[in-house]
């Protein structure tokens, strides 16, 4: 590209990093791209690193050596994340969102790109130190959350289907017991969708007893894969701990109380906030 003034180069370099998270970019690549000396590029990166950290946008890590460079890791500081989730909790407490069975209507919120981007950064922050190969979710409402998280972590997404699709070829199917209503249901995953021995981060929109997530974990066993983490947007505390099938997970919001008669709910930030 053409040689840019430093101010323009800083803007373009920042955009370049933001759209390539978890990607190691060498100083040589930047020097060639902007037709600038490596010393100038290093100074620019120091400025960007300071702004990212001061504004809570993430970390810019430097890797030394011939094969080194810089890598951008999206993160969100606790105060910023808490403010966003507190607003989410207020919206979810609207009486008209209460559905039969103690569920909440969240589809409209899961269609907001800005909120999805924020949630993706929160999950990326929670699992930044985990060794993960792929993001997994089950259709359908968990899909936008999974893709938002994957965008921040620069990872592929695998979608578990309720029914096997002929367009996906041979698949592994299992039966699992839904933790909330104890019904036996089926889920399947195409054999080509996931490499064996992958490390998988499971993302879901809502968890009561955790039956669906446990089903995905059982499905991963058939692929000799490892569950590297579990993240849920909203968990329900209406289910007792003795009924909960999972112990190790990260939640962003916690539905602590539902009164079906008055349509009143109480929602607080999840265990991500300690």
UniProtKB/TrEMBL annotation:
The keyword DNA-binding applies. InterPro entries: PRTase-like (IPR029057), PRTase_dom (IPR000836), Pur/Pyrimidine_PRTase (IPR050118), PuR_N (IPR015265), PurR_Bsub (IPR010078), WH-like_DNA-bd_sf (IPR036388), WH_DNA-bd_sf (IPR036390). The keyword Transcription applies. It holds the Pfam family PuR_N. Residues 5-74 form the Bacterial purine repressor N-terminal domain. Keywords: DNA-binding, Transcription, Transcription regulation. SUPFAM superfamilies: PRTase-like, Winged helix' DNA-binding domain. Residues 110-238 form the Phosphoribosyltransferase domain. Homodimer. Belongs to the purine/pyrimidine phosphoribosyltransferase family. PurR subfamily. This is Pur operon repressor. It comes from Paenibacillus oenotherae. The lineage of its organism: Bacteria, Bacillati, Bacillota, Bacilli, Bacillales. The gene is purR.
